[in-house]
Specification:
The protein is mostly beta strands. The chain is 7% helix and 53% strand.
Length: 302
Amino acid sequence: MKIDKFLTCNIVLIALLVLSSCSQTIKDFYDDGSIKREYHLKKEKYDGAYKEYYTNGNLKLLHNYKNGRLVDSSLFYNEKTSLKIDYIRYYSNDGIKEVVFDNGVLLKEGFVNDKNIGIGKWKFYNKKGLLEIVREYKIINNEQYLNQSWSFNKKGDTVYGGNFCKIDVVKDTISLLEPFRAVAYLYVPLFENANSEATVCLPYDENVNFDKNFSNDGKIQIDTFYNLKKDIKNQQWFPNNNPNYTVVFGKKFKTSGKKIIRGYVLEFYENNNDSINREERKIYFEKEVYVKDVNLNVPTSL
């Protein structure tokens, strides 16, 4: 019996030692002895709450980890008071969303990539918390690019300015016998006062596409579609649209399946018809279309 109790006690002791070696709480301190940070390690990875503190003792940030990965949300606190949060980061399958505050009032919100660079649509608010501007950022040739912007009225519910376009796709499912067709409307041109024009540019070859960040722009053959000022054939379908900023475009496919169509709306003007003094701006877009196989089995009549 004594041997059994001895073995049981040793087994429990060994189990506790293994658990303590796998999971531990660590605290770091400033030179004055105040707490700097505290966190938990499990199998040498962050796990659970991770806290950092300012030198004045106020909480600086609070992360949540699971098996070494950030989960749920991270809170970043104001140095003067831990009752106010400067910004929050939310982690989900959609990416990392950041919400920024200014003295407790919502300032801006949007997504960031793994390099902490803003991507997608970011919303900016005024001091009253009303929507003021929306900016769409893309990573173009590995750098952040302001692709489009929308300015809102004082109520935050009506667009009155910015620089943006709209791409209307006629059909997102087509057959091999019909082309992909779409219309680009440049609603707010950047160079309108200079009597600018717009075109749409797509890769010429079906088997060659723009990279996701358009790093091969200028390196592949381009198919250019002109606006209604030159595209007389389609003018009749858009009698109320500004012909300088309306472009009908399309593409044919020889194979079926899901297709990713990448391109850009190019706005430009030339000073004194001099191509050397040309000014231009690109708005990039990406659309998805599905191409169905053609059923060639035509039923015969009885």
